């Protein structure tokens, strides 16, 4: 029974790490990168999940998009 619990825990950890992949990591043969909105969304998800990571809006870019500072502590 203990072994089954260990296997279950490993599967949960593996599944959660797969959910955090960028488009490039999901399919490296595709030769694409994430878009700006995808990156912003990715960091906002990490901000909600982890207390060690904070996302701050510090202004706007020259393209008029939000400029964000990511702090990992």
Helix-strand sequence = HHHEE
Class derived from helix and strand content = alpha+beta
Give the number of DSSP strands. 2
Query: What is the residue-mean pLDDT, rounded to a whole number?
Result: 79
Describe the largest sheet.
2 strands, antiparallel
Number of helices: 3
Distance between the termini: 38 Å
The share of residues in extended strands comes to 15-25%
**Which outline best applies?**
flat
Note poorly predicted spans.
Answer: none
Specify Rg, calculated over alpha carbons.
17 Å
Into how many domains do the coordinates divide? 2
Strands of the widest sheet, in order across it, are 1-2
The helix content is: 40-55%
Brief sketch in words of this structure:
The chain is of the alpha+beta class and 73 residues long. The protein has helices at residues 2-18, 23-26, 36-49, and strands spanning 53-60, 66-72. It has two domains: 1-32; 34-73, no CATH class.
Protein described:
The protein has 73 residues and is α+β, with helices and mostly antiparallel strands. It has 2 domains: 1-32; 34-73, no CATH class. Helix content is 48%, strand content 21%. A two-stranded antiparallel ribbon has the order 1-2. Strand 1 (53-60) and strand 2 form a beta hairpin. The chain is flat, with a radius of gyration of 17 Å.
């Amino acid at each position: 029974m203990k072994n089954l619990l260990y296997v279950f825990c490993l599967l949960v950890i593996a599944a959660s790490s797969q959910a955090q992949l960028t488009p490039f990591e999901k399919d490296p043969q595709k030769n694409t990168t994430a878009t700006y909105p995808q990156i912003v969304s990715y960091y906002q998800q990490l901000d909600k999940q982890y207390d060690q990571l904070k996302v701050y809006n510090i202004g706007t870019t020259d393209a008029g998009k939000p400029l964000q500072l990511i702090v990992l502590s």
